[in-house]
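W.,

You were right to be curious about this one. When I first looked at the sequence I had no strong expectations either way, so I just let the prediction run and decided to look at it fresh. Below is the sequence, 396 residues in total, followed by the output.
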Amino acid sequence: MKYDFDTVINRRGTDAIKWDVPDEELPMWVADMDFATAPEISEALSERLARGVFGYANVPDAWRTAYADWWRERHGLAMDKDALIFCTGVIPAISSTVRKLTTPNEKVIIQTPVYGTFYNCIRNNGCRELESPLLYDGSAYEMDLADLERKMADPQATLMLLCNPQNPAGKIWSRETLAKVGELAKRYRVTVVSDEIHCDITAPGASYVPFASVSDECREVSITCIAPTKAFNLAGLQTAAVYIPNPFLRHKIWRALNTDEVAEPNSFATTAAIAAFTKGGAWLDELREYVFSNRKMVAEALAASVPEVKVVAGEATYLMWIDVGAFFENSREISEFLRREAGLFVSDGMQYGPGGEHHLRMNIACPRALCEEGTRRLIKGLQLLREKSAACEKSC
């Protein structure tokens, strides 16, 4: 490999949220990679830093061109550059959208289990979540389109938050499934906010399908939230975009983002995004190979040592969704046990809503040495839990 993903970077004591844990703990929870970003991005940021002046910044046309070229070449979506709006993050964009397109006490559709912050975006803006549970067969997920139609038919539900690719399960939704979502949304006049922040972390040879690219219906009802932050580990720079082909929706969201003061870049936000999308392709391709080799290693180790555990097949993200239902019904208890007894901090599935009770989410975007240590701790903790459960059954 041309790029170095093996070097362990000490992030303790650097104000990193992920690593704000006791020294004996290994954090593999929040979606934050432990790799340095692409050197091409660091070089671009160093050049910007060397100017020494950090005043108010405009969004240059090169930013729009970088996004449009990347999505055309990588994902087959021909973007109208004028349909792109800068924002400081995907979550601020979603919250502003919920606030702008709903009234208090209306319902927002989500498909559970799903990224837990969706709940915050809905509840903090005075709305109620309307859950459409995904179908789970013990190894993979699909949308329950019949249930989704029932939820969209509710006149109080005018907005849907779509996770594409799906977090936490790593599912890449098919073109056919997304087309059906767009058809239903058009029929019932539901606007679809598609969170596509994880789209560039896919298995080598695999690609996601942008919701807005699927059909005219999808294009017209969609608000797509995108960013280089997950793929290139740039979350702290607060740089993202919203792509809205429909001019009526675009004007509304442009006003919402400006009203909420999340539509202006800091001195490094556009520089990083431009460098990522114009110079970071080779680095990203190697990263994907590395992350999915980590995934393979973890899955094989679990299958050999704790065969009761099932790793949900995932084609995207650097997050593993692990079914631990064979141990307990409550994944929060398992997560707490692993942290206490094995020093491993992973996310419990219950924070992702119904359907997450039996799962853990584990972040494997880290050097191989850390991933191997995390896997060792996970196996050790689960084996201890198995022994404890067996002893309890005998004594009881």
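Here's what jumped out at me. The mean pLDDT is 96. And, maybe more interesting for your project: The chain has two domains: 26-39+281-395, 53-279.

Coffee later to discuss?

I.
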